[in-house]
Specification:
By secondary structure, the protein is mainly alpha-helical. It has 14 helices and no strands. The chain has helices at residues 7-39, 44-50, 52-72, 74-91, 101-129, 135-193, 215-235, 238-245, 251-270, 272-275, 286-307, 313-342, 348-377, 379-397. Helix 1 (7-39) packs parallel to helix 4 (74-91), helix 5 packs across helix 13 (348-377) and helix 6 (135-193) crosses helix 12 (313-342).
């Protein structure tokens, strides 16, 4: 069936399939670690620490991974990511007595490196598969990036469910074995089918080239840092704890809500091109990134005000979260398209890696602030910081090019 498709489409489907398989294991692994170590009696702080290196190494991996992809090819960096995830999963099949905090943190660090190599490779590869220059090509680029990003996030939500089911049916070690074996088969198929020179720069970049020289990429990266910091400052720790304690929701209800939110978020990302003007032939530019950030900032400030209200707290918070998900998905999808569009043709992974380094830094800052600010000042304070971060992202986006070419 694949043989009847064009080479570019075949490569896109292989890359997407790799990304999907990895994402399912990534989402399931996160849920498995949280639930299993909660059952073992770990405190919420200790469970959070298990993911610290996962986020920290994301910053480093995106920065170095883009340079590595430009030198050796994106097929190799994607396959390295798949292989590292298999090793991380196998590392967690050891007896329970060996699952100490340092051991699990190391395994999570390896998984974080694998995830960001895989994501950077998938996003950068699309640039190499679509010839640039025309409005039609830019429209197709936006559509392909949106489908890849949206499907990934929807599958991450499915992975949350999968993790819970695997833990209940196979236990922690059994779940790790199953995921490792399935991903091993995906890895072997990828080694045999991905194009060897995909994304490799014609001129070998120097290590100093990991920092982008493009003004548009640097501005977009700064905006991305604040955008994702704005999401995680209330989403990662503050919101689930608030829902469980103040709203009195059971753990399974909180987990189900978040899984459904992530799936819906991914669906909106996938159709973002149609929500932002694809039918009229318009290709988004920097102005679109600024304009879509403004209503998101206003909405977040409104939720912050509503959280302090004595009436309809559940409706305000949960309804606001759904609207936040829709607007945030569109903003995220626009950013994901713009970075691929702005990235230079030769060695696109350098620019994409630098951009996702900023994304990882924003997530790290947001995660730390989420726990600290919620503990000291509550959910409303987290939301006000989120609104301020989004407003900064909109302000920074004023400096982006007003057209998709630079």
């Amino acid at each position: 069936m694949l043989s009847s498709l064009s080479p570019a489409i075949r490569q896109y489907l292989i890359i997407t399939g790799n990304y999907w398989a990895f994402t399912l294991t990534d989402g399931a692994l996160r849920m498995l670690v949280v639930l299993h170590f909660h059952q073992l009696g770990f405190s919420p702080l200790n469970i959070a620490l298990l993911f610290l290196f996962y986020e920290v190494f994301g910053v480093v991996t995106n920065l170095v991974g883009g340079w590595l992809g430009a030198r050796i090819g994106l097929n190799k960096t994607m396959n390295i990511g798949l292989g590292l995830q298999v090793i991380a999963l196998l590392a967690l099949t050891v007896p329970t007595a060996m699952l100490t905090v340092p051991w699990v943190m190391a395994a999570q660090a390896l998984s974080g490196i694998a995830k960001d190599l895989n994501k950077m490779s998938a996003k950068s590869s699309i640039k190499a598969l679509i010839p640039a220059g025309s409005a039609a090509a830019e429209g197709k680029l936006f559509q392909w990036v949106a489908l890849l990003t949206g499907s990934k996030n929807a599958l991450k939500g499915v992975g949350f469910f999968m993790g819970g089911v695997l833990l209940a049916t196979l236990g922690f070690a059994g779940a790790m074995w199953v995921m490792a074996l399935v991903l091993l088969m995906v890895w072997i198929a990828s080694l045999l089918s991905l194009k060897a020179d995909l994304g490799k720069a014609k001129n070998k970049p120097k290590f100093g080239d990991i920092f982008s020289s493009s003004r548009a990429v640097n501005i977009l990266s700064a905006a991305r840092l604040f955008l994702f910091g704005a999401r995680d400052v209330w989403f990662v720790v503050a919101l689930p704890v608030f829902m469980a304690t103040t709203l009195g929701l059971a753990d399974w209800a909180v987990g189900t809500f978040f899984a459904c939110w992530v799936i819906g978020y991914g669906v909106v990302q996938s159709i973002a091109p149609y929500l932002t003007g694809k039918k009229t032939g318009k290709v988004p530019d920097g102005r679109a990134a600024m304009l879509w950030a403004i209503p998101l900032a206003v909405l977040t400030a409104g939720i912050a005000l509503g959280v302090n209200s004595d009436h309809g707290l559940e409706v305000i918070l949960l309804g606001g979260l759904l609207l936040f998900g829709v607007l945030f998905a569109i903003n995220s999808s626009l950013h994901s398209y713009l970075i691929v569009s702005y990235a230079k043709e030769d060695g696109a992974s350098l620019d994409v890696g630098f951009y996702y380094m900023a994304n990882a830094m924003g997530r790290l800052i947001g995660t730390v602030l989420s726990g600290w600010v919620y503990q000291t000042a509550g959910l409303a304070a987290c939301l006000w910081i989120s609104a301020a971060f989004i407003a900064l992202a909109a302000l920074i986006s004023l400096g982006l090019p007003r057209h998709s070419t630079i």
